[in-house]
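May I ask for a single protein's sequence together with how it folds?
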Amino acid sequence: MMCSSRMKLGSALKKLAVVLTLGAFVAACGGGGTGPQRGPDYGRGPTGDGQVSEDGALRPHHMSGREPIRVAMLLPLSAPTKDAQDVAQALLDAAQLAIFDASNPSLLLIPKDTQGSDAGAKAAARQAIDEGAEIILGPLFSSSVAAVTPVATKRGVPVVAFSTDRDVARPGVYLLSFLPEYEVDRITQYAVVSGYSRFAAMIPQTAYGQRVLNAFEQSVVGSAAYLIQTEQYFQSVDAMFEPARRLAAINDFDAVLLPEGGTNLRGLAPLLPYFDVDPREVKFLGTGLWDDPTLGREPSLVGGWFAAPPPQARTAFAERFESAFGRMPPRIASLGYDSVGLAAALAGQLDSTDRFSEAALTNPNGFTGVDGIFRFLPDGSTERGLAVIEVTPRGFSVIDPAPTTFEQPAF
């Protein structure tokens, strides 16, 4: 599945009705041919159609005669909170779409329920590896990734996790997520090239906010621009008021970073115009948290820029997900699709000793998925090709396309 110098995931794979074994046949082609329907209780593990041999490895009956390529997916399917359960289910549903798109009938996805706890994640990882998993996709939470790491590392099984916490990344433990540091650098660099040179920021007092602030300071200084002022606040409208007033009083910046999303962003953004910061004169900038097409309904954000993966393929994925499962996926669901697509691409290209090796996973040419190009770095973090997107009253407009290759232009 090599395409020029990158491995294509998802979109380059031919459709194939591959059965996902999770007990009974939990996935089957829908009547309209749009993909798998949801099956029963994913968290129970393989029984029925699955068969565990004397060496402990899972060998389903329908795969008799060939050795499966076992890919574990660890998710908090029975987590204490409904929000976590919904995200986990969406990731698993997206993974099913990728299984149906994979052109490797030997690929066997083995979902395991972490129960939303570190102990559950560790137990799930151990069980998956005992059943022959060659790679682990997930977990979702950073503490669960930390719990799984020693189990997987001891057994030589790589982990491709969904956490955004860079502190849990390391060689052999890769983060297939959206890291704010790259988003901040991309939007800052684009703003500087576009003529902006005097920056300010409103930063939430959270771990995410601190990471954004550190990256923003480095990017601005590294671009020979000026960081005029930063203000930090607790995440409530009342707590935002005074920091916004102080920032507006400076009145000596031409771009301001607002690394917020959802209701917090909708509460923060109008405060600056209220204190006479005119968004027609000062460019409002954001991170991937702005990736919400309804933002154009907030007048103060219209004309603002943010960095995020290119939206075209993801939009097609979201529409297909909705057709298959009857609901729109959360933003993170594409990671479930791309993680299985990654495993399928590597499994189809390399033999059993090399397919999930460090060299294969850190291929400097990277991979292409629903969220554009990405590559794992040796330290476990992920570099992505990001687009610059402008908020308009009718949705989003890409004003600077994402790169399509990691190759540096020749001079």
